């Protein structure tokens, strides 16, 4: 079973590799669900790691409906990721009614080619996940990151299993949200091949309240190792 770690910093990425993770999804600002990391962070992480680095392409927090300008930014970010040697792209776009924006998703996939493309948790907003999974399969998406449309994947395990059965070998269901050493085994027993976790812990934050006091997190090596011990 493959473990992908959502790494929100250089240190988190290094911790993930040293703890034995198989792949990372690199982003910034986990507190808002993640946004595209900086050029410098991507470059340094790709240079430092030997495991695959997938990069989140999300220009801002909030919803997944993007303006023309934001869409152009996403395409340019994908181009930069390819130039820097990233091994995969993670992204997604919705229409105003929360269905998948087929035309622009297809364009992002073409920009990412030949890198594998993961459709991220925008999928958990769609009104008809089984129908939308068929759309992603037709588009040639490699995997979809989903919690089964619940805040925690363990609570969405029935839908996740239904999606896995529907997907067969056409697309990988990457299970994410609330994965920990206690419930990881449930997804292995259910037959999933990949799981996604932040495995994060709080670190000291002495920043002045003037600049905000959102807690800083970093991927915790022990938690990652504990998950790996369960699934291997």
Structure description:
The protein has 232 residues and is of the alpha/beta class. The protein has one domain (2-231): TIM Barrel. 38% of the residues lie in helices and 18% in strands. The chain contains 8 helices and 10 strands. It has helices at residues 10-19, 39-48, 68-84, 102-112, 129-139, 157-167, 184-189, 221-231, and strands at residues 2-7, 23-26, 53-56, 88-91, 117-119, 143-146, 172-176, 194-197, 200-203, 216-219. Strands 1-2-3-4-5-6-7-8 form an 8-stranded parallel barrel, surrounded by 6 helices. Strands 9-10 form a two-stranded antiparallel ribbon. α3 (68-84) links the parallel β3 and β4 (88-91). α3 (68-84) packs parallel to α4 and α5 (129-139) runs parallel beside α6. The longest helix is centred in the first third of the chain and has 17 residues, at 68-84. The termini are close together. The model has no long low-confidence stretch (mean pLDDT 94).
What are its keywords?
eight-stranded parallel beta barrel; globular; alpha/beta; TIM Barrel
Helical coverage, percent range = 25-40%
Please compute the radius of gyration using only Cα atoms. 17 Å
Superfamily (CATH H level) name: Copper homeostasis (CutC) domain
**What's the total count of β strands?**
10
Spatial shape: globular
Can you list the strand order of the major beta sheet? Answer: 1-2-3-4-5-6-7-8
The average pLDDT score comes to: 94
Which structural category fits the helices and strands? alpha/beta
Quote the beta fraction: 15-25%
| CATH architecture classification name | Alpha-Beta Barrel
> Treating each run of at least 4 consecutive H or I residues as one helix, how many helices?
8
Q: What characterizes the major β-sheet?
A: 8 strands, parallel, barrel
Distance between the termini: 7 Å
Low-confidence stretches are none
The CATH topology assignment is TIM Barrel
